[in-house]
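Example 3.2
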Amino acid sequence: MSLKPPPARGRHRALAAACSLALAGTALSLTGGGAVQAASADIVISQVYGGGGNSGSPYTHDFVELYNRGTGPVSVTGWTVQYASATGSSWARTTLSGTIAPGAYYLVQQAAGTGSGSALPTADATGSIAMSATTGKVALVTGGTALTCSTGCASKSGVKDFVGYGSSASSSETSPTATLSATTAAVRAAGGATDTDNNAADFSAAAPTPRNSSYSGGGGGGGGTRIRDVQGARHVSALAGKSVTDVPGVVTAVGAAGFWMQDAAPDADPATSEGIYVHAGSAPGVSVADSVKVSGTVTEYRSGGSTSTSLTLTEITSPKVTVLASGAALPAATVVGSGGRVPPGAVIDDDATGDVETSGTFQPATDGIDFWESLEGMRVRVDGAAVVGPRSSYGEVPVVPQGSGTRSVRGGIVVRSGDHNPERVILDDVLAPTPTVDVGDTLTGATVGVLDYGYGNFKLLPTATPSVTRGGITAETTAAPSADQLSAATFNVENLDPSDPQATFDALARTIVSNLKAPDLVALEEIQDNSGATDDGTVAADRTMAKLTAAISAAGGPAYSYRQINPANNQDGGQTGGNIRQVFLYRTDRGLAFTDRPGATATTATSVTGTGGVPALTYSPGRVDPSNSAFSGSRKPLAGEFTWKGKPVFVIANHFNSKGGDDPLFGRKQPPTRSSETQRHAQAAAVDAFVDRILAVDADARVIVLGDINDFEFSRTADLLTAGGSLVDLPRTLPAAERYTYVYEGNSQVLDHILVSPALASTAYEYDIVHVNSEFAVQMSDHDPQVVRIPLP
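Structure, written as tokens:
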């Protein structure tokens, strides 16, 4: 088994007394300057309005509004807001002073027109520049020197941010905004938080909504904070830790300790979510389709604790909820997949180098982690969702939209180098039961729910149990070997011990006898000692093996023998007290025999001897390099010398270090840190060196290396095992759609391998991964076995 942390059932949504954790940003006083070469990390121009006092104008004065989209306060003392006409090069200036807090605004009042209108809120800085109502240029400069440019101004030294508004503006960030009027301002999306350095994309022409440093409603227009202002185009809200007032929405789902709501009047920016979770701490007292206003504190909740590798979930906590009406129309669910928003097909994140919550990049169109974040809390619909992983014991079902990724021959979705399938989303049973499904099933019609996040994955919480169209996959059966074919298999039997139900032993026995056709040799992984996970010092596994071999005989199989080495107590990883190990299970009635050279212990290293082209092992069975730090706290490889019809065959059974402790694919650290790889790389190098010693005596030696390698066929681990051509990795020889032995969170992937030496690889061997476990909700183990039939007449 590859040890990976399971999702915890104590999720905050299901706890009446659950707590929420706020992220505290480090306060930094930032001053800046230099040419604009990337999106501003903090201060941006959030509104430009030049129609003040014109006929029909809602305000008497022109204004420029600034916003701090960063995480710390920024001093703007000595900075200037500068204005030039659409094609001009003469710049008027207004000098600024003071500090802008994170998530706060700063209002710069300019000249008044001759018409009527309302007064602006109290300005933070006042100038007398008469701006055009339709088209012009505005620069935020970190010094007092006037610009002199007409074009290319956005890249000039000292320019912090730049807006060309109106189609005739001669300078802008990428493209200018739409042309404005007396009743419209250039308004930056997400309350000022969106900045892609493209004025046309970042701004829309909308009613002016001037906000000053005293504004307490958060970002957004329309006189108050909207959900999109709270969420922003980012992973952590710019308003985290701040109070918000009267945030409107329609209740879309109700949980045990809170509810989800969504804005009924969304904007046109797909990067900013229109939905959010309101954490009440107990039954919230609202119903689906209630129109509400919510006041409370914006909080970032991190499942697994404040140091977890998971992303945070943006919430409103300590809420005051006002129900305005009942029976409101639910906002339309966003379609994900064909005909709607199509998730990125390969990239989870390719531009962050560290923590995506602080990286400053957010690209939902190209990065899967940002795509799903942009839908956080919203109603989402997947039509004909394809099931790519069986329903887990936690009620989770991984699905993808139709047409996604490299699909396996049986309906899963296959991991490939550079593609860990960002299309996947996991259905969870928080709001409604999820159906029991296998890989290849399809959820009939539309699956609708709210999008959530927890413990390293984006979750779609269906509001009704989906119907299922069965794909009808069945357990595979391999071909029987011919008389001259040596049949060798590997099978991880998932912590097998005598306390497991007899039904488990019987199912494993039937698989070995019927589905694998009773191989001559089976390398077993995760055989536990006689007391299982009871930590009582027991290390022997004879009762475990006696129960398994008896079950095989009862299933009509041959009389199997076995060889193994008892590990030292609690030195080989796995469940404490379980003392898992690899075991050679073999039959002798078809020509295979074991060459016994006894005497090895848990700490005794077997080695290779022999000259004149005849290699031999000093101990058989024996352990490969057990004192090597590469195998500290992990299973030691088991080596054995066999003969097939009198000819020597060397076999090394493995169970490398698990992936436990690696960062999740959809975690805050991108790219994910895979700390477990270091030990596997060292283990692979040690095993490859041992094989090289056999081949140094006889280049044509028959060597089989097999087991749970706990890494992909395209991994560095597999590269090290095949270095110098000493071994051929058989999973690599299969078509991409057939390369998987394990399904984890919907990803079909290779963890188990059979590798053979060149002499065996040159034969007309037959190799088969036999899918009997990983795709099914009912399993006897979480790994699929595999078998190779090698002609050795």
